[in-house]
Amino acid sequence: MDKIAIGKVRTSTGVRGYFKVLSFSGEADHFKKLKGQNVEIRLNGRTKSLTIEDVRMSGMNLTIKAAGIDNPEDAKKLTGWEFYVERNRAVKLEKGEYYLADLCRCSLVMDGEIIGKIKGVSSNGISDMLEVEVEDKTRLIPFMEIYVGKVDLKNLTVELKEGWLLE
To answer: Which of 17, 33, 78, 129 could be joined to 69 by an S-S link, Cβ 3.0–4.6 Å?
Structure first.
């Protein structure tokens, strides 16, 4: 089963080895289910396994404690590492929601013709933006229903409704 990134270590917190985690989905419940479980973390092609001892919310911060990480110095060494889990352990998606990793495997199509390859997704504060490689240039396409049509993960395509966005 393939794995998907669900969050990233931000920094250490406290004196007992806890660290703050940014949830990519903005939700924390799926992290709470990882307590007592082994998870994979990755950074720059390196992979480690952690056993999650505790997961809690501290104010607005998701904080995690892993076995063998018992002080702030060790916790700080995890900064930037991303959590990967099997899809069935990630947050459940609602209709119209997609994992970024899935969108980044898709081609952008218009009128049935491939016009670019989605390389990433970013946010401008108003909407997510598809980063699309078109003729050796990166174009930003607002990931909004007015501009983007059908997302077909089976055929790995995302429909573009408005061609003027590529000009």
So the answer is: 17
Judged against a pLDDT cut of 80, whether residue 1 lies above it is answered with no
Prediction pTM value: 0.75
Question: What order of strands is seen across the sheet that includes strand 148-152?
Answer: 137-142, 128-134, 113-123, 107-110, 157-160, 148-152
Strands 137-142 and 38-43, how do they pair? unpaired
In angstroms, rounded to a whole number, what is the distance separating the alpha carbons of residues 103 and 151? 8
Rounded to 5°, angle at Cα 31 from 29 and 35? 115
Q: How far apart, in whole angstroms, are the C-alpha atoms of residue 49 and residue 62? A: 19
For the segment 80-101, the average pLDDT, to the nearest whole number, is: 88
